[in-house]
Design a protein that fits this description.
- The protein is α/β, with parallel strands linked by helices.
- The protein folds into 2 domains: about 230 residues, NAD(P)-binding Rossmann-like Domain (Rossmann fold); about 100 residues, 3-Layer(aba) Sandwich (Oxidized Rhodanese, domain 1), CATH 3.40.250.10.
- The strands form 2 sheets. It has an 8-stranded mixed sheet, sandwiched between helices. It has a 5-stranded parallel sheet with strand order 9-13-12-10-11.
- Helix 4 packs parallel to helix 5 and helix 4 crosses helix 10.
- The radius of gyration is 24 Å and the shape is elongated.
Length: about 375
C-alpha cells in the first residue's frame, strides 16, 4: 500500500520534490521503502542518519554492541551521554530526533545463520556496515538467497571501498569479488589498525546514495563496479567486477543453497569453555609478577606498534613490534621464557605462533593485553 505524503512531509522534503528525477512519485517510493542497516557504528552512522533525513519509511538496525568512548571519534549516531548504552537504542533515539516520520525497528542481536533470513526477509534493501568477515559473507549469502540488493562498504585506516551486489539484477555478489576470506588475523580490525574518523562518513554517504538511486531507479549504480577511495591522496579508482561463473552461491550451479557456519568458513576457532586455562596464555597478574621479579629471568615484550606504545605503555616492558619480528627474532634468546603482550591479546598470539615456528619453546601470550592491564592492574594506563 502506497503511503501518501503529509503537508509536513512535503515541506520537509521540498528540495527532493523539486528535483525532476525525484518529484512526488520518487519521494513516495522513498517513503514506502524499507532498508536494513547491519551495524550502527562507523558506516552505520552516516547511512542511518541520511536515510532518515531522506525520508525512508522504515529503517531496521542490527547491532548488539554498546557505545564506547572510542566510538565517538567517528560514530555520529552516538554522543558522550550514550557511552554504555545499547548502540541500537542510541541510534533509534538519534533517528527519531532527525525525523519522527521514520519507523525504526531494532534487532539487538548478532546476525547469525539461524536468524539472518528472517531478519533480512522483511526489508527491500540491505546495507552492509559491518567490520568482520563472517558477517559480510553471511550478509552476502542471505541476500543472494532472498534476492535482495546488498549495498557494500568497508573502511580501513585511510582507505575505503563500496559496491552494490545484486546477482538477481544481473550483477556479481561479494563472493565473486572475494571467493575466500583472508586467514584469521591477516587483516587488522579498525581497533588494531585505526581509521581516520571522517572516512566512514564518506563511504557511508556513498552507500546511502546507492540506496536512494536503487529505490528511485535513477542513475548508474555501482553494481558491477568496485569504487576505491584513498583519503590521503584524495583519489577515487574504479575496478570492473563480473559475475564469477564458478561462484558457489550466485553461479549457475551453486553448491551453497543454505546458510552455513561462517565462523568456521572464516577459520575462526570458537573460544574454549574455560578460556582462562589456555596453556599458551598468562594473565596480567602473572605479567606483573614477572616484572616485579626480574631475577626469575622472564622477558616481557610489547608487540604493538610505536605509535600505540606512545599512547600507553607498561614500565619495564620492551617494545618489539610484530611487524619487525620476522627480521629481529634472532635478537631474542630461544631458551628464555618470554611473555608477549599487545592491545587485547590477538597480535600477541600471532607473535607466539611465529616464535614457536622458529623454535622458541617458552613463549606465552598475555591474555587481554594492555587493555586488561589497565582494567585490572593500573587504571592510570589509558585505554584506546
Amino acid at each position: 500500500m502506497t503511503i501518501e505524503l503529509t503537508n509536513e512531509e512535503i515541506r520537509r522534503y521540498s528540495r527532493h520534490l523539486i528535483l525532476p528525477e525525484v518529484g512526488m512519485a520518487g519521494q513516495k517510493k522513498i517513503r514506502n521503502a524499507s532498508v536494513l542497516c547491519i551495524g550502527a557504528g562507523g558506516l552505520g552512522s552516516p547511512i542511518a542518519m541520511y536515510l532518515a533525513a531522506a525520508g525512508i519509511g522504515r529503517i531496521g538496525l542490527v547491532d548488539f554492541d554498546v557505545v564506547d568512548h572510542s566510538n565517538l571519534q567517528r560514530q555520529l549516531l552516538h554522543t558522550d551521554a550514550d557511552v554504555g548504552r545499547s548502540k541500537a537504542e542510541s541510534a533509534r533515539d538519534t533517528i527519531r530526533e532527525l525525523n519522527p516520520n521514520v519507523a525504526v525497528e531494532l534487532h539487538q542481536t548478532r546476525l547469525t545463520s539461524e536468524n539472518a533470513l528472517e531478519i533480512i526477509g522483511s526489508y527491500d534493501i540491505v546495507v552492509d556496515g559491518t567490520d568482520n568477515f563472517p558477517t559480510r559473507y553471511l550478509t552476502n549469502d542471505a541476500c543472494v538467497l532472498l534476492k535482495k540488493p546488498n549495498v557494500y562498504g568497508s573502511i580501513f585506516r585511510f582507505e575505503g571501498q563500496a559496491s552494490v551486489f545484486a546477482p538477481h539484477l544481473g550483477g556479481p555478489c561479494y563472493r565473486c569479488l572475494y571467493p575466500e576470506p583472508p586467514p584469521p588475523g591477516m587483516v587488522p580490525s579498525c581497533a588494531e589498525g585505526g581509521v581516520l574518523g571522517v572516512l566512514p562518513g564518506i563511504i557511508g554517504c556513498i552507500q546511502t546514495t546507492e540506496i536512494l538511486k536503487l529505490i528511485l531507479g535513477k542513475g548508474t549504480s555501482l553494481m558491477g563496479r568496485l569504487l576505491l577511495f584513498d583519503s590521503l591522496e584524495m583519489k577515487f579508482r574504479e575496478l570492473k567486477l563480473r559475475r564469477d561463473p564458478r561462484c558457489p552461491i550466485c553461479g549457475p550451479n551453486p553448491s551453497i543453497t543454505a546458510l552455513i557456519d561462517y565462523e568456521q568458513f572464516c577459520g575462526i576457532v570458537p573460544e574454549t569453555a574455560e578460556p582462562d586455562k589456555n596453556p599458551d596464555e598468562v594473565t596480567v597478574n602473572q605479567m606483573r609478577h614477572a616484572l616485579q621479579h626480574p631475577d626469575e629471568g622472564i622477558r616481557v615484550l610489547d608487540v604493538r606498534e610505536p605509535d600505540e606504545f606512545e599512547i600507553a605503555r607498561v614500565e619495564g616492558v620492551t617494545l618489539f613490534p610484530l611487524s619487525t619480528l620476522p627480521q629481529r627474532f634472532t635478537e631474542l634468546d630461544p631458551n628464555q621464557q618470554i611473555y608477549v603482550h599487545c592491545k587485547s591479546g590477538k597480535r600477541s598470539m600471532k607473535a607466539l605462533e611465529f616464535l614457536r615456528q622458529q623454535g622458541f619453546k617458552y613463549v606465552k601470550s598475555v591474555k587481554g593485553g594492555i587493555s586488561a592491564w589497565s582494567d585490572e592492574i593500573d587504571h592510570s594506563v589509558p585505554k584506546y
